[in-house]
Structure formats: structure tokens, C-alpha cells
């Protein structure tokens, strides 16, 4: 009889063993874990089990074991304290914090001055004051990033990359929030746009649209491109760089830390290299990286400016008698319409480099297209130093260039009484 009574006793939360309950709780998100505190005393005790909060601290705040030890706090306390400070950014914080951490770790041994130029994070009240000043809400992911670092000092080189040609130089600084607020736009053509970057040499900025206006999507990041053919000064086309601040910033950091953007003389150069864009002829390898320059381009009239960087390298295992000198170049240039232009000339950028085993020669040049994309290919002609009458060609791999997605200004379209159905064009 006693055995039957034992079997029929109701199963309660208090009678369940601890380990299975902790295992179940380990699968809950932090919101559900907090709600468990209000269900019963038993669940309140179990949901406060400190190891349960370790995963959430690492997932949302990227808090390491070392940081926990330094702060001498339990995991739950760390989670709550951090949430009290930056909890409104919980959906953005991990991605942006990781991007900042990765960027600084990569740049510290390579560009220490650039890392030293970063400012301490802004306070919540500082960001609130900027919102009051401009009369618009800042995107949460933008605010989140500025809580970590409030931009950088206006120095050269800038954190957001450089570009150098013989008669043109660009280096973009990441603006602090107060300077950005001073450049907030209310004029037609850039209404409700906040500058993210600034180049002291060209005046170039990348903007973020803090409100949807004039055909722009809210939170888009873009380069402005004044329509040089329009009679309306508000006709400003846009080269779209990112759909959101997070998209823009994390993709840039990814290119930097992966080595996709080379670092040359303590500067980040925004050249994109296609790993397949490499050609080897004998002992000589030629590789190409490219970049689009929005500040020298326009949609109307169609003029798209690209620069390319070429690396010519002879294998270190080549025989000494393979040393040679570049005599001339040949280019076959094709635009998106299939129009072909052929160019031949002596040397490269006025030089006739000598290539020997293990030596690398690099140079930068540029081209323009009247179409949004095109490609180049060709060859160099060399002669051997020890056999001057013996010449040979070295292949230059085909490399493609394409401008970013752009959006035509609705001011131009409406001024010219054109339909607005094709205002967003992708290539």
C-alpha cells in the first residue's frame, strides 16, 4: 500500500533533480532565463546558477575569462552590469565590438599611430545631445560603435583607408560624433544625412542617411556624386557602400584584417585583389588589385574612374641569368558594351624596371570607362640583361573593374520629368 502511494505522488518542480533542470536552462536565452526568476523560488535559485550566464556574457558582450578575473565578478553580475550600460545595443554590440577588437589587434603592430588616434567611447548623454542637436534619431548600431570609440583625431593616415595617385591623394578619417553633427545636412540633395568620414585633402565624406528621404533608404551609407549635367543643385547621385552602419563597418574591417586591403607605408590602401587575378610566365608572376574612386567619378555624365596596382615578381629560385628589364607594355581594354581600345607604349609610368631573382616591382596607374564596368588584359615585353637581343612577353592577367551600386537622384529625374521606376540601378 505504501508503495502505491509513493507511485501516485504528484511530480513537482521541487522534486526534480537539479542537473537535468540546469541542462534545460542552459538552452534558454537571457530573456527567458530572467523570466524564470519570477516563476518559483526553485527556478529563481537555479537560473542564478553562475555558469549559465557565462555563455550569455561571451555571446552578447564578448567578455573573456581574463576580463572576468580582472573584474572579480560573477558571470551574472557581469552580464547585468554590462546590460545596464549598453543593453539597448544588445542586438549589435557583439558584431561591432568584435570588428573593433579585430581591427585594433591587426593594426597595432602595423599602423600603431592609427590606433593611437582613436578616441575613447562617447557617453550616452553625449549621443542623446547630438540627437537633440540634429533633430533626428541616430541608428542604434552607429550609437553602439561610438560607445566603443568616438571616431578618431583628424590625422593622416585616416582609419577608413587611403588612395594615392601621382596627382591625387585621399585619406579618410572616422569623424567623432560632435564633428559629424556639425556636418549634418539639411540642404536639398543630402537632407538628413550625417557624415561618417572626412578627407582633409579632397573634402570627401561618406554619409549615412539617418532618415529615409529623397529616394534614400534609412541607414544607407554612400558617397555623394553631384550630377554634373543637371541644372538642379539638389541633383546628387549616390554610390551605395553599405545597407547599414554595421554592414558598412564590418565589411570594411573584414577586408582589412584578411589582408584584402594592403598596408603600405603605415596606410590602409583600399585595393581589392582577386586571388585568381594572377598570371605566371616562366619565373615572373604578375598580379593585379583594383579600386574604384568615387570622388573622380560621375553617373551623369557617365565617367567611372578606376585605379589598379600591379605587382611584378621574379621567383627567388630563378637563375641569375634570368634577370631582365621591362621594355614596353600592351593593353587591351574592353568596356561593358564590348568596345575595345588597344594601347601600346614604352615602359610603365615612365620607368623601365629591372627584375632579378627575388625582386618585386610594384606600380599604380589608372583608367576610366564610360560604362559602369570593364576589364583590361595584356602583356609586358622584356629583354634579358645578359642576352639583350633576346626578348619575351609576360602575360598580364585579365582584371575586371565595376563601380558600386548607385542610385540616381530623384531630383534630377523629377526635374527632367522622367519616370522614377528605374531610380535604383544595379550592375
UniProtKB/TrEMBL annotation:
Stored Gene3D superfamilies: 1.20.1280.50, ApaG domain, SMI1/KNR4-like
Record GO cellular component, one term: nucleus
Primary site of residence: nucleus
Protein name: F-box only protein 3
GO biological-process terms attached to the record: SCF-dependent proteasomal ubiquitin-dependent protein catabolic process
GO function terms (MF aspect): ubiquitin-like ligase-substrate adaptor activity
CDD domains tied to this protein: F-box_FBXO3
Signal peptide per UniProt: none
Amino acid at each position: 500500500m505504501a508503495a502505491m502511494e509513493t507511485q501516485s505522488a504528484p511530480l513537482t518542480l521541487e522534486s526534480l533533480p537539479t542537473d537535468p533542470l540546469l541542462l534545460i536552462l542552459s538552452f534558454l536565452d537571457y530573456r527567458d532565463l530572467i523570466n524564470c526568476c519570477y516563476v518559483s523560488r526553485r527556478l529563481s535559485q537555479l537560473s542564478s546558477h553562475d555558469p549559465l550566464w557565462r555563455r550569455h556574457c561571451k555571446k552578447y558582450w564578448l567578455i573573456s575569462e581574463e576580463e572576468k578575473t580582472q573584474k572579480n565578478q560573477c558571470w551574472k553580475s557581469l552580464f547585468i552590469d554590462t546590460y545596464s550600460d549598453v543593453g539597448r545595443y544588445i542586438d549589435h554590440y557583439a558584431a561591432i565590438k568584435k570588428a573593433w577588437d579585430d581591427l585594433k589587434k591587426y593594426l597595432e603592430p602595423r599602423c600603431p599611430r592609427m590606433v593611437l588616434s582613436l578616441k575613447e567611447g562617447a557617453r550616452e548623454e553625449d549621443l542623446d545631445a547630438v540627437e537633440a542637436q540634429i533633430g533626428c534619431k541616430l541608428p542604434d548600431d552607429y550609437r553602439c560603435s561610438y560607445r566603443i570609440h568616438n571616431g578618431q583625431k583628424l590625422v593622416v593616415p585616416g582609419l577608413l583607408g587611403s588612395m594615392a595617385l601621382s596627382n591625387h591623394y585621399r585619406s579618410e578619417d572616422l569623424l567623432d560624433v560632435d564633428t559629424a553633427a556639425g556636418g549634418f545636412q539639411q540642404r536639398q540633395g543630402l537632407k538628413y544625412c550625417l557624415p561618417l568620414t572626412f578627407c582633409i585633402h579632397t573634402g570627401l565624406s561618406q554619409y549615412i542617411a539617418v532618415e529615409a528621404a529623397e529616394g534614400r533608404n534609412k541607414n544607407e551609407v554612400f558617397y555623394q556624386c553631384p550630377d554634373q549635367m543637371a541644372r538642379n543643385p539638389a541633383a546628387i547621385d549616390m554610390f551605395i557602400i553599405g545597407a547599414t552602419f554595421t554592414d558598412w563597418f564590418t565589411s570594411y574591417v573584414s577586408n582589412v584584417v584578411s589582408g584584402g586591403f594592403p598596408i603600405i607605408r603605415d596606410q590602409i590602401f583600399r585595393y581589392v585583389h582577386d586571388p585568381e587575378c594572377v598570371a605566371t610566365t616562366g619565373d615572373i608572376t604578375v598580379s593585379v588589385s583594383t579600386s574604384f574612386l568615387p570622388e573622380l567619378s560621375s553617373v551623369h555624365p557617365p565617367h567611372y574612374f578606376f585605379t589598379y596596382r600591379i605587382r611584378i615578381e621574379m621567383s627567388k629560385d630563378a637563375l641569375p641569368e634570368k634577370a631582365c628589364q621591362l621594355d614596353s607594355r600592351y593593353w587591351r581594354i574592353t568596356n561593358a558594351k564590348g568596345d575595345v581600345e588597344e594601347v601600346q607604349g614604352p615602359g610603365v609610368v615612365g620607368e623601365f624596371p629591372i627584375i632579378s631573382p627575388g625582386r618585386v616591382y610594384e606600380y599604380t596607374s589608372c583608367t576610366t570607362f564610360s560604362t559602369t564596368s570593364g576589364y583590361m588584359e595584356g602583356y609586358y615585353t622584356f629583354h634579358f640583361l645578359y642576352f639583350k637581343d633576346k626578348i619575351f612577353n609576360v602575360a598580364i592577367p585579365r582584371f575586371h573593374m565595376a563601380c558600386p551600386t548607385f542610385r540616381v537622384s530623384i531630383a534630377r529625374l523629377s526635374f527632367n520629368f522622367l519616370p522614377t521606376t528605374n531610380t535604383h540601378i544595379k550592375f
